[in-house]
User: Which sequence fits this backbone?
């Protein structure tokens, strides 16, 4: 696998790979922040700030075209819950498997939303999607849970099906908090295994109040200022972040006004702590990505601090008259990674030290992983798994 991956890069990368491998052996490579800064425990996952929903094959492929145009700055959710026609649930799930495994899927940044716990076909969705596309599914979203037990049952079934299918990776789980019962159990739900994102679903949540919250509050400014909605959003964000899970904000209903989407995403990020937001219309994607990018001035300072810190082998430094240590380095490293995922322009030295070398190191890690598997006598099946993981690292 190491040899095959090397054939896919240009001559300059080949030379860089050999040179870097020699430098590693000599101990001349500076410690990467991923290794230096997170020995203390789990950190928040670094994932795109936008999640675009698509229900039909046509719209899913259109989403993939947008990914190729804009780059890997947003995920696509292939929707089974609202996308499948009644009576054609099997065909719809099979279509998603086919599309995810096709060359149309450029970055392996597409997940799926299955039917809710009360629907008779949710297990059928899992039985088709996990064995069929488990190695390429970016995540699985679970809607309309009414309690912790509902979500736990679904997660355990996904784990069981993945194990039977020989899938060794953890498939990230996203759980929608859009019912009163789910909100009541949100702190417990946030501790479930494989959980990556807690989504807030505004429309079902407001509908659950049976008129006590006027429908106008499904839009701005009411969705941020009505006290019951604001309290629910704050509770979801707090439960998510304290359990190292990403909180994701609901959609903007005004489809034809990208600026409204931008303002909603900005308020969700800055006033509540949401780190991701749904899109249901193509023009909303770029608005969300732009709104959730880090502040330019802060990003520039963060890069200089990290570069100076690496020069000091991650010991304390002084920058612009302020003291910085590993606590602030962790914050700035996450900031830079999220900026990278949002397509923000980084300093050339930042790219070189923290991202270009890391890509080359991934080739070495892939080779070492494959070699260790061969030593254990696990060939064909494990070779396929290793190949998939190596390709994901390369992307």
Assistant:
């Amino acid at each position: 696998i190491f040899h095959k991956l090397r054939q896919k890069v240009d001559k300059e990368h080949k030379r860089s790979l050999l040179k870097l491998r020699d430098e590693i052996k000599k101990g001349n490579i500076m410690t990467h922040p991923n290794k230096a800064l997170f020995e203390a425990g789990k950190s928040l996952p670094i994932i795109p700030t936008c999640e675009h929903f698509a229900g039909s094959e046509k719209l899913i492929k259109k989403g993939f075209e947008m990914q190729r145009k804009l780059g890997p700055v947003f995920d696509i959710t292939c929707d089974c819950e609202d996308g499948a026609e009644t009576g054609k649930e099997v065909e719809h799930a099979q279509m998603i498997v086919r599309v995810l495994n096709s060359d149309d899927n450029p970055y392996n940044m597409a997940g799926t939303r299955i039917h809710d716990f009360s629907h008779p076909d949710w297990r059928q969705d899992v039985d088709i999607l996990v064995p069929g596309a488990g190695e390429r599914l970016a995540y699985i979203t679970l809607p309309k849970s009414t309690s912790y037990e509902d979500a736990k049952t679904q997660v355990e079934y996904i784990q069981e099906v993945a194990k039977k299918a020989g899938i060794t990776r953890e498939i990230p789980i996203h759980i929608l908090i859009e019912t009163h019962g789910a909100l009541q159990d949100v702190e417990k739900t946030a501790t479930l295994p494989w959980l990556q994102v807690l989504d807030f679903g505004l429309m079902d949540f407001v509908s659950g109040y049976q008129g006590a919250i006027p429908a106008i509050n499904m839009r701005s400014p009411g969705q941020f200022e009505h006290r019951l909605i604001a309290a629910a959003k704050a509770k979801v964000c707090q439960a998510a972040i304290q359990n190292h899970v990403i909180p994701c904000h609901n959609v903007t209903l005004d489809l034809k006004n990208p600026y409204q989407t931008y303002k909603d995403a900005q308020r969700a990020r800055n006033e509540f702590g949401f780190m991701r937001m749904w899109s249901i219309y193509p023009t909303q994607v770029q608005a969300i990505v732009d709104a959730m990018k880090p502040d330019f001035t802060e990003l520039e300072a963060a890069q200089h601090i990290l570069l100076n810190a690496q020069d000091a082998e991650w010991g304390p430094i002084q920058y612009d008259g302020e003291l910085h240590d590993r606590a602030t380095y962790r914050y700035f490293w996450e900031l830079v990674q999220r900026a990278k995922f949002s397509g923000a322009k980084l300093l050339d030295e930042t790219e070189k030290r923290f991202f270009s070398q890391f890509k080359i190191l991934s080739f070495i890690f892939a080779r070492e992983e494959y070699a260790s598997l061969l030593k254990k006598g696990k060939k064909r099946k494990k070779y396929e798994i290793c190949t998939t993981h190596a390709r994901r690292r390369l992307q």
